[in-house]
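Re: Re: token formats

Sure, here are both.
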Amino acid sequence: MRRVFVTARGAVSPYGTGASALIAGFRSGRSAVRSMTDQWKDQVQEMGTWVAAPLPEPIPPKSIPRQYRRSMGPLALMASVAANEAIQSAGLPPDLLSNGRTGVSIGSTIGSVRSLEEAFDHYLRKRTASGLPSGIFFQIMGHTCAANVAHQHEINGRVLAPNAACAASTLAVGLGYEAIAAGQQDIMICGGAEELHPMVAGVFDLIQAASCQYNDRPTATPRPFDRNRDGTVVGEGAGILVLESEESVRRRGIPVLAEIAGFSALTDGAHMAQPHQESIVRCLHNALDNAGLMPDSIGYVNAHGTGTIVGDQAEAQAIRQVFGQGRVPVSSLKGHIGHTLGASGALELIACVAMLQEGFLLPTLNLDEPGEDCLGLDYVSCLESSNVDVLLKNSFAFGGTNTVMALKRAVL
């Protein structure tokens, strides 16, 4: 198995465009959650949650050449902007992108929700597809992000597009890691994206997993692991990481940002919506085994931590079961930018890479007092310096999908 390194990153997030804006936003401790009442009141009714973490301003459509953006909804547009940043930062020339040894792995929950709404609004009113934009199917299809990024850059290696909801982008990065480690590809452009729409918030509202008690105080929610948490807050964005084999890194003579040491993905097979503590424990152990690590070598756990009652409880107890009481620092970043669903794992991995590189740990925003069901962990309470060399990143999803990734400080 070959060693795999992160060599570049790109992002579009509730903090703005660019990976540097994302990291600076996290370090500032500023919440990107805000009230959506004015934007949503004419689109949806009878909803309990009226907060979200949108992009601060729309992506300018003309940031992507017209011949490519015709097949892009807002979802693929975000992914493409983030991928362009990562590709440019990695210094990947066209001939390397199109030599068959570079692939794409970008996940999401579904395709563009806004494009899907446009298509069905037209069809249900007119009972015909005639008159719809010809590219709308390519905006709606489940692999719209991966396909559009590959098309724009003439990438002809393998293309993967895991639709695994909240675990989609960590799974996408993990699949990219495995493709390189196994020698199937040399470079993988990996990550995920999610598009904000009131229907997305409405789905969480429907299953009683959305935050509803802080509509008048949007920056006070979500509250991962807190005793007053009441659900998650949806957000949007895209995160992309460039992964390369050790051989590719040495051949190109480029710096590395972090090493992916191990990965685990499994399903609990128990419940579609309720997290399963023992499955999370098994996933954590599998990731450690895959990386050849023991629990006491982990210096930090970046938790999934969405702010839901049952999700945070299961994860907190699983972390305590694997690592012991209060031994490893833990934090969730969803208090900062909400839950960006299919983009969350990649955006949070970008932050994890920065934490390893720059020697700091980010706290959990809005965690004032841990809930009784979440006690026993060493929660990071403020931005602090750190010399962590190895960390774990958790991402879990509805349907029982669990993923854990191990990252190391980069040493060639």
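Second one below.
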Amino acid sequence: MKIFSRLLSSKKILTIEEIKRKPVPVHVAIIMDGNGRWAAKRGLPRLAGHKEGVKSLKNTVRLCSDLGIKYFTAYSFSNENWRRPVDEVSGLMELFFETVSSELEEIVKNDVKIVLIGNRKSIPLKVRKRFEEAEIITEKNDNLVLNIALSYGSRQEIIEAVKKACINIRNNEIEIDNIDEKYFSELLFTKNNPDPDLLIRTSGEFRISNFLLWQIAYSELYFTETLWPDFTDEEFLKAIHSYQYRNRRFGKI
């Protein structure tokens, strides 16, 4: 039996009202995987799958807001993804630019705060500036924090945090014995966020893929075979429903 098969507690149709009867996670992170395979199955170019995946992201963000989830982190493009074919990467960068441009008004209307996490220096200037403009425009919104992980890699994030800590020690801003988990967490891209309660990965893969390695130390994990463009409201509600029946002990009995 595959691991994820036992995570689906029932085949009944779940509703938002039913899910909201129990506590929902404060922070959900998601690895949006399967766009390329979705396109290949239909004889379409990979970029068509990425465009369809944007629709799934929009739906999931809306559902997070409806459920009262306060933080949502979406893994949209990793450091390793720069190794993909040039045409695909350039198409993705243009898609990011177009999506932020076209959705910003709706994002503001729904009181969503945009935060870009990742290696900003490697992102094309046009795209980076559009995200940073969105960050400024939405910085006071507080219904939902939407973290977009773009050009992101967790190992690199941790290394950069270590470098910051070393500089602070050298500048006598902190003593080495005073560095603890709380202090280190504040050096990461997600410094203003609680750690994810739930991490979801689509497409049937069982890897974390260099995503939030520090932050997900005690996150609940949920895997589904569903390809990201096919990730419906019902699929997301199933993941939340599974989370609600977990016993989170954090090392305790």
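The CA atoms of residues 114 and 136 lie 9 Å apart. The two ends are 28 Å apart (CA to CA).
- S.
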